[in-house]
Design brief:
Layout lengths: L1 H38 L25 H12 L2 E6 L2 E6 L2 H10 L15 H6 L6 H11 L5 H4 L2 H22 L11 E5 H18 L14 H12 L4 H8 L4 H11 L1 H36 L10 E3 L5 E3 L2 H10 L5 H32 L1 H14 L4 H13 L9 E2 L4 E2 L9 E2 L4 E4 L1 H4 L3 H4 L35 H18 E4 L9 E2 L7 E2 L4 E6 L4
Parallel strand pairs: 2-9
Antiparallel strand pairs: 1-2, 3-13, 4-5, 6-9, 7-8, 10-13, 11-12
Length: 540
């Protein structure tokens, strides 16, 4: 009896707390909305302002987010206002507004947005979403690891090439006789996304963590690591925890704990974080062994000098310093905390893998449906290799039509911005406004790209010097542009060169190519897989 009363009181208190929190959120949203509306007299609002919790971007959070935001601009114009939780927000296609916020005020407007997501601990301690001096410090620790001098080092280039070789060898096995005859197949159909995901993960695991055998390159079997990462990212789409955290940011902490321990998102996070921690321990042990070897070597006058970038551990394993080691150095030197290191590494793990693979899949698709341009690119690569100008144009055009980061260089402003000079009379963006830069739509505006803006035409990049500085932002812009941009382009170019040297690519026009989800607006999940035919080139 007593237990029942206690339980009833507890549930009643919990329900009252939930209702009270929702009412408080609604009141706060209403107050902020009314105040915000008076400051933006001539900027159109979305038509869903009746959402009483104020989360008017909630419907953009998962299903067809990019397409819905694009439709809003077509309906309301180049700048649209709405509320994100209780935060005033505008999505703009006006490149001059973007330039003012992202480039002209780059040292001031450096923060993105802290939302109540079901990964609160990560969002507060990672390079993507942390703020101000914390971000500057983490960026200084991570940026050197992905500089061209690092990823163009012989050992990293070798690892990229080995990843390509593993993929090509796996593909070539599918060309071998499959029906008991000795006749080799010349054309094989592959799931392009499956190919690229294996390659991309192999690069991340190899170039960053020195793990070379975790990705399964038997194309007849699923890859556990691909399944793990894709499953975790996919859970963000339509996740109950995700939407609840958006509606009630104050609950983000408990939601984070619940999702981490009882939801597939949490399983994915735990597995990746445990892997990163284990590799960090191995790196620390390697440093310890190097100091011991160096000390012993100094006592032996006949010993050859040791190379700290490449030496053998006690078990005979060859330790080679690569990109991640420069970050680990900063961690062990106390330049970044353990939370900052592990949570930044966690999101970098996903970003380095998913962003690059999205870029590559869309580029393969454009190769498959533009055969004449594919032939021209192949000839250019034969002459100029990875430095082919047409290769750079081709990739840029693919990134233009299919940007991996659909909201580009969004920022939270720290100074009021008067929009009158941009055509909006009596309209001022107050401090704290989140400015969304809708890259997906900007990259297709006829105003900047011409009447053929929806067409795939790499040749337009011959005049890139005439573009507006904010016209093309597939990797963001300003100080918080993607630190891994150059490495992503490098690995893309290396793979495309290798594939076009060996195969001709072909696929039908994919009618649902623009039907994809974009959870958090930071990556894409296609509606259906992309199947492509690869034909071996027998007479180069």
């Amino acid at each position: 009896m007593i237990l029942g009363v206690v339980l009833l009181l507890f549930l009643g208190s919990l329900l009252a707390s939930i209702v009270g929190t929702l009412i408080a959120a609604a009141i706060r949203s209403k107050i902020n909305y009314d105040k915000w509306r008076k400051q933006l007299k001539n900027v159109p609002y979305l038509d869903d302002q009746r959402n009483w919790l104020g989360n008017h971007l909630g419907r953009y959070a998962a299903k067809r987010a990019v397409q819905k935001l694009d439709a809003s601009h077509k309906k309301y114009g180049e700048t649209v206002a709405y509320m994100l939780q209780d935060r005033p927000t505008v999505s703009t296609l006006n490149l001059d507004i973007i330039k003012r916020v992202v480039l002209d005020k780059a040292n001031v407007n450096i923060n993105r947005v802290q939302m109540g997501l079901p990964m609160k601990e990560i969002s507060q301690n990672c390079i993507f979403t942390c703020e101000n001096d914390q971000w500057r410090r983490i960026r200084r620790a991570f940026a050197p690891a992905v500089k061209p001098v690092r990823f163009r080092a012989p050992n990293v280039v070798m690892e990229v090439e080995q990843s390509i070789n593993k993929l090509v060898e796996a593909m070539d096995r599918k060309f071998q006789p499959q029906d008991g005859t000795d006749k080799q197949q010349l054309t094989v159909e592959f799931n392009a996304e499956d190919l690229i995901r294996r390659y991309s993960l192999q690069l991340v695991l190899g170039c960053f963590y020195k793990q070379y055998d975790l990705v399964n390159f038997n194309l007849d079997e699923p890859c556990a690591w691909v399944k793990l990462v894709d499953g975790g990212l996919g859970e963000l789409r339509g996740s109950f925890f995700f939407h609840l955290a958006l509606i009630v940011p104050s609950w983000a902490g408990i939601i984070d704990w619940l999702s981490f321990n009882f939801h597939p998102i949490g399983y994915w996070r735990r597995k990746v974080l445990d892997f990163i921690k284990q590799q960090s321990i191995l790196g620390l042990e390697a440093r310890k062994q190097f100091r011991e070897l160096k000390s012993k070597n100094q006592l032996d006058s006949d010993s050859k000098p040791l190379d700290e970038n490449c030496f053998r551990l006690k078990d005979g394993t060859l330790f080679k310093r690569n990109m991640i080691d420069f970050i680990v150095d900063q961690f062990h030197a106390g330049k970044i905390s353990s939370e900052e290191y592990f949570h930044s590494s966690f999101l970098l793990f996903g970003a380095a893998d998913k962003t690059a693979s999205d870029c590559l899949v869309f580029t393969l698709y454009e190769l498959g449906v533009n055969k004449e341009k594919q032939d021209r690119l192949r000839e250019s690569i034969r002459k100029h290799g990875i430095e082919s100008e047409y290769l750079a144009w081709f990739i840029n055009e693919s990134l233009r039509l299919n940007p991996p980061g659909p909201i580009g260089a969004s920022r939270t402003i720290v100074e009021p911005l008067d929009l009158e000079e941009f055509g909006y009379k009596d309209s001022i963006l107050p401090v704290g406004t989140l400015v969304f830069t809708t890259t997906f739509t900007i990259h297709r505006l006829k105003k900047y790209w011409g009447e053929d803006a929806d067409e795939f035409r790499p040749e337009r990049w011959a005049n890139a010097d005439k573009f507006h500085p904010c016209q093309f932002m597939p990797f963001g812009g300003g100080l918080r542009g993607c630190p891994g941009k150059e490495f992503a382009l490098f690995e893309m170019k290396k793979l495309i060169c290798a594939l076009l040297e060996r195969y001709r690519l072909e696929c039908d026009v994919k009618e649902d190519i623009m039907e994809f989800d974009s959870p958090l607006f930071i990556f894409n999940i296609p509606n259906t897989p992309l199947f492509m035919k690869f034909t071996k080139i027998t007479n180069p």
